[in-house]
Design a protein that fits this description.
D-Maltodextrin-Binding Protein, domain 2; 17 strands; four-stranded mixed β-sheet; 538 residues; six-stranded mixed β-sheet; 20 helices; 38% helix; alpha/beta
Length: 538
């Protein structure tokens, strides 16, 4: 189960550095976001050409400490960037275990760095809006317009990016990491083709046909070991591979993938919907409960870890699995199913684009914000972003081709990836893997199924009805947190109970009533306000 999406989770648990105050004779950056368009161009700055700084400039930047323990300047990529820009970075690196405490001290009055740099270095849920509104992080939109052509083009070509980066007060306080090649799906369904062929069964196309197929898997000695020990269906609940992915077959997608900010939210005709009180959600739970009660679902689905789950698909003892991309090629994609009332097949789409918004920010102690924004803009150049992912040009990991593209060389067995690619792991950098950047690198085909192949099967059925990546005010965050703790706990409790033991028909009305008593209706009004503000951003 190779989860490229897990990069976001990694970033949220990593640590970053202690920053030092900015240096130089200029006054520190103003906080109105307009300085770049009204002030005189700094004498040491080249506005468009390289190097960026006419005379050597040093910036103090907080960043993740790589697992190797190296300073980022030990990597050839950053050595080349310093030569090109004439800007030396004094990297202030902090291990993950102590970052949260250190970050709190920094923002409470410690010595701030000139900037923060790394995939998700600042929390987009709290830090960006909070410290931007306090003036500690400076608005970037004016500097972007004048000094950051790569970022400016990204925002012009993708208006949704600007919406996602704009804080409630109308400013942009941070820049993101972007991956436009990111998978459009999370878990999808796979079926054991070997078992289908053995029983001469067709590929299921409806929820009822899936039920009949699972029964056949259970009742027959598929595999030929004279034991009925096969597992009709298995998944990893509350992780990437949970059964909620199937809910779209009942008329409404439910997004609750390991609580990653989805919380059962969707948008329908510009109205924010809480899916866990909708009749389609109820019908989906009834269906899965039927599967569980008849012994068609792995009893370990709600408790097993990835190691146990992967071992089962590796052995081929599961009939239908919700997975990222099983290594066992006996499993083939099972396309989304029609529902019991003839609902058309749909599946949740997770659009590629911005991964984490809090990946770069400039603080108010920075005396060279113009040079700093030019420096980070250089990272968004497609060729540099490609190198941060695949390795430095001229190194061992990329070979230039006659057509101007680069062939990606696989890591030799036993080789050190840091030394081979001469760049830090991607979670320790800032980049935009756009289509242009991706098209520069050509990877050798493994001959095996890829996540791109899986997405192609599911593409006709994908629907993006998700709540957008929008910023909340501090007050909105506080209010939602107050309601969400109780609401989410109660929904999860009843979900597990109904899945395993049934009873949803009898208890449904009281369940909905209790949720509103907990503040669900008030919480949804806040989400609607945030959504409306997001939609109004130009």
């Amino acid at each position: 189960m190779n989860r490229k999406w897990g990069l976001s989770t990694v970033a949220l648990t990593l640590s970053m550095a202690v920053g030092l105050a900015g240096c130089g004779d200029k006054e520190a950056a103003t906080v109105d976001g307009q300085k770049a368009t009204t002030a005189q161009v700094p004498s040491n700055l080249n506005v468009t050409d390289f190097p960026i700084a006419k005379e050597k400039l040093t910036l103090n930047i907080a960043a993740f400490k790589p697992p190797s323990g190296k300073d980022l300047n030990d990597y050839k990529f950053f050595q080349d960037i310093e030569t090109k820009t004439n800007i030396h970075i004094n990297w202030n690196l902090t291990p993950g275990s102590s970052w949260q405490e250190k970050k709190n001290l920094l923002f409470a009055g410690g010595e701030l760095p000139d900037a923060f740099y790394a995939h998700g270095i600042l929390s987009e849920d709290t830090d960006v809006v909070k410290y931007g509104s306090q003036g500690i992080l400076i608005p970037l939109e004016g500097y972007i317009d004048t000094y950051a052509p790569n970022v400016k083009k990204l925002l012009q070509d993708n208006p949704v990016y600007k919406k996602q980066l704009t804080a409630p007060d109308g400013h942009i306080y941070s820049l993101p990491t972007i991956d436009e090649t990111y998978s459009r799906t999370k878990s999808t369904m796979f079926i054991n083709k070997k078992w289908l062929d053995e029983l001469k069964l067709p590929m299921p196309t409806t929820t009822d046909e899936l039920y009949q197929t699972l029964k056949a898997f259970k009742e027959n000695d598929v595999g030929g070991n004279n034991k009925k020990d096969q597992i009709p269906m298995s998944f990893l609940q509350n992780w990437n591979n949970d059964v909620n992915s199937l809910f779209g077959a009942f008329g409404r997608i439910d997004r609750d993938v390991h609580k990653a900010g989805n919380n059962h939210l969707s948008v329908e005709n510009n109205k924010v919907i809480y899916t866990a009180v909708q009749p389609e959600y109820k019908a989906a739970i009834q269906y899965v409960n039927k599967l569980i009660s008849e012994g068609l679902v792995d009893q370990e689905s709600f408790t097993q870890d990835t190691k146990v789950f992967n071992a089962k698909t590796a052995k081929g003892i599961v009939g239908v699995a919700f997975d990222w991309n099983p290594a066992n090629q006996d499993y083939v994609s099972l396309p989304p199913l029609k529902g019991p009332a003839g609902q058309k097949p749909v599946w949740a789409e997770y659009p590629a684009g911005i991964l984490l918004r809090g990946s770069f920010a400039i603080t108010n102690v920075n005396k060279n914000p113009e040079a700093t924004i030019r420096w980070i803009d250089n990272m968004y150049d497609p060729k540099n972003s490609m190198q941060l992912s695949k390795g430095v040009i001229g190194g061992q990991s990329l070979k230039e081709r006659s057509d101007g593209k680069y062939e990606v060389v696989n890591l030799p067995q036993g080789a050190n990836e840091d030394d081979f690619k001469q760049v830090p792991p991607t979670a320790y950098s800032v980049w935009a893997t756009t289509k242009a950047a991706s098209d520069m690198a050509v990877a050798a085909s493994s001959g095996k199924r890829t996540k791109i192949d899986i997405d192609a099967v599911y593409a006709p059925f994908l629907v993006n009805d998700s709540f957008p990546k929008a910023y909340f005010t501090a007050e909105e965050n506080d209010q939602i947190s107050r309601y969400l703790t109780d609401v989410d706990a109660y929904v999860s409790k009843m979900y597990a109970k109904w899945m395993m033991s049934g009873g949803i028909d009898k208890e449904w009305d009281d369940y909905v009533k209790k949720l509103n008593e907990m503040g669900l209706d008030k919480m949804m009004k806040i989400y609607q306000t945030v959504y409306d503000r997001y939609q109004a951003t130009k």
